[in-house]
């Protein structure tokens, strides 16, 4: 693996229905893009894995950014808080996903989601696909200390 | 299955540079209605800023730049954001920018390094 200090990887994904592309860019950033067809709806996913945070974008039939949410564990209590940081004033589509991603990964999470409001089934399907991919990439927190996938470090 | 090849609708670039001794990771994405630029030295997105062009009555466009998450007391972050949105606008695009900056230092040299790295790898 090259260790030059300036490495550029330009990437324009091309793929069919559910082919995924991974790109380990410079440093500790891993970008994963994929598209799934669920119930006649095209869902695009983009996961940017930073060393201490995950950014995820969910596009429903379009490539608009959508509403942005930030979620994190709030100490000292063991709860997860989520806040809307762009758009999303009257609908919370995506905020639940952000919260549950923190629980699943143990990391701070930023979620961008353009799923239309009042689509709980779509939201649930999108979350399911996203979590499947996160587990496959090794980003989910293992429930038992011994077995299971651990947080990827690179 | 049809033979239709579909490109992932969000083109992006990802790179890593050394700026003033700090490894800086960049991700630049082009959504349908926003540009997203991330520049981080700290392993997280850091402070998130939003910038958009306001079409006014006068010929000169004005820009609205604000912090939407994180440090609100570091003017250098707003300065970077403003430089980038002005460049986006002068390149002909009216799309707003979401910029995340997770920086270890906020010096002029770092500012220039970030701006020039983003310009060289821009998607507008």
TrEMBL record, chain A:
<dbReference type="Pfam" id="PF16093">
    <property type="entry name" value="PAC4"/>
</dbReference>
<keyword id="KW-0647">Proteasome</keyword>
<protein>
    <submittedName>
        <fullName>Proteasome assembly chaperone 4</fullName>
    </submittedName>
</protein>
<dbReference type="InterPro" id="IPR032157">
    <property type="entry name" value="PAC4"/>
</dbReference>
<dbReference type="GO" id="GO:0000502">
    <property type="term" value="C:proteasome complex"/>
</dbReference>
<dbReference type="GO" id="GO:0043248">
    <property type="term" value="P:proteasome assembly"/>
</dbReference>
TrEMBL record, chain B:
<dbReference type="GO" id="GO:0000502">
    <property type="term" value="C:proteasome complex"/>
</dbReference>
<dbReference type="Pfam" id="PF10178">
    <property type="entry name" value="PAC3"/>
</dbReference>
<dbReference type="GO" id="GO:0043248">
    <property type="term" value="P:proteasome assembly"/>
</dbReference>
<dbReference type="InterPro" id="IPR018788">
    <property type="entry name" value="Proteasome_assmbl_chp_3"/>
</dbReference>
<keyword id="KW-0647">Proteasome</keyword>
<dbReference type="InterPro" id="IPR053720">
    <property type="entry name" value="Psm_Assembly_Chaperone"/>
</dbReference>
<protein>
    <submittedName>
        <fullName>Proteasome assembly chaperone 3 isoform X1</fullName>
    </submittedName>
</protein>
């Amino acid at each position: 693996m090259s260790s030059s200090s300036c490495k550029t990887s330009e990437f324009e994904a091309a793929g069919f229905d559910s082919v995924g592309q991974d790109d380990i860019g410079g440093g500790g950033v891993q970008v994963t893009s994929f598209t799934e067809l669920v119930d006649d709806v095209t869902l695009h996913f983009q996961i940017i894995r930073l060393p201490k945070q995950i950014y995820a974008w969910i596009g429903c039939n379009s490539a608009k950014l959508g509403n942005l949410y930030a979620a994190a564990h709030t100490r000292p209590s063991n709860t997860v808080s989520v806040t809307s940081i762009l758009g999303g004033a009257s609908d919370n589509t995506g905020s639940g996903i952000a919260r549950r991603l923190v629980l699943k990964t143990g990391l701070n999470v930023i979620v961008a989601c353009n799923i239309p409001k009042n689509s709980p089934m779509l939201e649930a399907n999108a979350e399911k696909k996203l979590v499947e991919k996160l587990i496959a990439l090794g980003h989910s927190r293992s429930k038992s200390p011994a077995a299971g996938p651990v947080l990827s470090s690179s | 299955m049809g033979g239709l090849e579909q490109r992932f609708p969000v083109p992006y670039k990802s790179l890593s540079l050394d700026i003033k001794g700090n490894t800086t990771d960049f991700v630049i994405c082009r959504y349908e209605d926003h540009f997203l630029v991330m520049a981080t030295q700290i392993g997280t997105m850091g402070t998130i800023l939003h910038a958009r062009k306001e079409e006014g009555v006068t010929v000169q466009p004005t820009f609205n730049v604000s912090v939407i998450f994180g440090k609100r007391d570091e003017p250098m972050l707003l300065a970077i954001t403003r430089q980038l949105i002005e460049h986006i606008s002068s390149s002909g695009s009216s799309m707003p920018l979401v910029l995340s900056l997770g920086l270890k230092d906020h010096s002029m040299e770092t500012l220039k390094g970030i701006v020039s790295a983003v310009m060289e790898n821009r998607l507008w």
